[in-house]
Amino acid sequence: MQVKDKIAAAIKSAVEAAMNDGVLKFSETLPEVALEVPPKKEFGDFATNFAMQSAKVFRTSPRKIAEEIKARITSDLFERIEIAGAGFMNFYLKSDVVYRELKAIYDAGKNFGNLPNKNNVTIQVEYVSANPTGLLHVGHGRGAATGSAIVNIMRAAGYNVESEYYINDAGNQMDKLALSVNARYLELLGKAVDFPEDGYQGADIIDTTKRIIARHGDKYLALPDDERLKVLGELAYADKMLELKDDLEKFGVHFDVWFSERTLHPDKINAAIEVLRERGGIYEKDGALWLASTKYGDDKDRVVVRANGEATYLAADIAYHKNKFERGFGELINLWGADHHGYVARVKAAMSMLGYDADKLKIIFLQMVSLFRSGEAVKMSKRMGTAIPLRELMEEVGTDAARYFFLMRSTDSQLDFDLDLAKSQSADNPVYYIQYAHARICSIFRQANEAGLTLDAEPKLSLMNSAAELDLINKIFEYPDEIEKAAAEYAPQRIARYVYDLASTFSAFYRDCRILGVEEDLAKARLALLKVTQHTIQHALSLLGVSAPERM
Predict the structure, then answer these.
(1) SS3 of 337, please?
(2) What stretch(es) of the chain map to CATH 3.30.1360.70?
(3) CATH code for 132-168+258-366?
């Protein structure tokens, strides 16, 4: 149990004691005990506004509540407890508590940051899910970095998580892929052909077609048009999936499940529509089938099957989410582009009609990414003539910088990606700054080893009492709470910000606290603190999918 948990438990015990004594009476549910690290050390190591939050429940002034709690806290954690203002409680820890907690973290080694399991419920996170018809672009890159980081953070926080990619491999976009590759196939083999007006015209389609010709030659020219179209469509689909998976692999993204939309057609879609019809959620008008989604807050009803009998994308999405619920996930998290805002109401309406708890479906929206070079917006790939492919971004700035920059900002804010900054090797580049801090710690250990100075199993941590040392220790103490909050809020930017702040705090320590040339016990204590700092930086960067180099 971490210090923060012990403080919360001490407060809860004191509240129970006050209620048993009859001085605090309530008939409602009490708020949770929320603890924060005050912005200034003078306000203590931890603070809570529990007394203020519970005033309405106890029908007593916050200050009176705080006084009754303080009088009944029996823990030996505290040097003192102060009540400030209307009822804030500020807790000042005994010095030995800090060192006991640091020793526990030191002993945990690389496991520090991995929190206890929460429960046996599995949470599914579905992200990227781009059509397999072209290259992933930088917008997909933001989704890939965010989704994979959320999965990593939630697993570190103790949740059971399964990641999934929904392959949109059915429908008009696949027909367009087949038509486009067929046209390029004929063209590259010297046949006159009119390219389809709405076909995919990117250079990647030509590349795909060239790879098909390299493997299979011109043998499909002799096939009837419809047969050749079908064969080339499948070959192009396979090629695009290989490209897509290769890009994601290079970007450090791995999925537990790849779910094909094709498996939904037609049986699972028809089954979902039939259940909706039985429950009064489907009606017929103008020869089409409509979802009565306005009953659940949508602005208008939606077509699920067109008059020609063709199922819409919504019909497939309903069947897909029905399938997700049938697999027994306790929570579903989807990462969608900001242009899908209007889609939420109709999908949740369908889930409610099917009898599922639509609140278990969480949607995270990703705002747009804008690339800038030399202060000017970069909108198109020079080679592709389309949106910037993710692979071009990785080639230009590297995977680490790309991932960190995607994760620096909240998903609900537009991201301006400065390519020049991402490539720079300076303290202004946040990912370089963090990685350099880690490499510097590794260098210190190499120097210490050359000087014959090694880590102790029982370092005398209490020798560290300067402001720079205590600041670094306290910053490390914040890490588990940051993981908890980042997981609960689906907010990887919290970890990105935390590890940058940790690197900054380490830099101040490095400036003020020597390792070599000081008394041996103090040097070994500081080495122990650096080992904890190193592990914490490594762990935080791993959650973001960023490497921690030992030399730079």
Answers:
(1) strand
(2) 3-93
(3) 3.40.50.620
Nearest partner of 505 among 550, 469, 546, 452, judged by Cα: 469
10-residue mean pLDDT series, the chain (552 residues): 83 92 78 87 90 91 95 92 95 90 96 92 97 96 98 98 98 96 97 93 94 98 97 98 98 98 97 97 97 95 97 97 97 96 95 97 97 91 73 97 98 96 97 98 97 96 95 94 96 98 98 95 98 98 98 96
* Range(s) of the chain covered by CATH 3.40.50.620: 132-168+258-366
The Cβ of residue 319 has, within 10 Å, a number of other Cβ atoms equal to 25
Q: Following CA atoms 480, 481, 482, 486 in sequence, which dihedral angle do they give, to the nearest 10 degrees? A: 110
CA distance 546 to 440: 17
Beta strands in 345-429 (DSSP E): 361-366, 369-373, 376-378, 415-418
Tokens of 413: 């804010």
Provide the sign of the torsion angle of the four alpha carbons 385, 387, 389, 394, taken in this order.
positive
Buried b (16+ CB within 10 A) or exposed e, 328-357: ebebbbbbbbeeeeebbbbbbbbbbbbebe
19, 321, 401 from 435: Cα distances, Å? 51, 40, 10
What residues are paired with 332 via a beta bridge? 124, 361
Name the strands in the sheet holding 361-366, side by side, starting at the edge strand that comes first in the sequence.
257-260, 160-167, 122-126, 331-337, 361-366
Query: If residue 325 lies in a helix (H) or strand (E), which one and from where to where?
Result: helix 313-326
Which CATH superfamily hosts domain 430-544? Isoleucyl-tRNA Synthetase; Domain 1 (1.10.730.10)
Per the listing, tokens 């079908």 go with 230
Class of domain 3-93: alpha beta
Q: Which of 201, 354, 329 is nearest to 259 (CA)?
A: 329
Distance CA 167, CA 340 (A): 17
What are the φ and ψ backbone dihedral angles of 316, each rounded to 5 degrees? -65, -40
pLDDT tens digits for 263-290?
A: 999 999 999 999 999 999 999 999 999 9
- How many alpha carbons fall within 13 Å on the CB side of residue 533? 34
Euclidean distance between CA atoms 256 and 254, whole angstroms: 7
The span from the CA of 321 to the CA of 347, in Å, is 8
Written as one letter, the residue type at 38 is P
Q: Where in the chain is the domain with CATH 1.10.730.10?
A: 430-544
Going by C-alpha positions, the residue among 64, 63, 52, 68 that lies closest to residue 16 is: 68
State the pLDDT at residue 416: 96
CA distance linking residue 64 with residue 67, whole number of Å: 5
Q: In this structure, what are the phi and psi dihedrals at residue 408, rounded to the nearest 5 degrees?
A: -70, -30
pLDDT tens string 134-163: 999 999 999 999 999 999 999 999 999 999
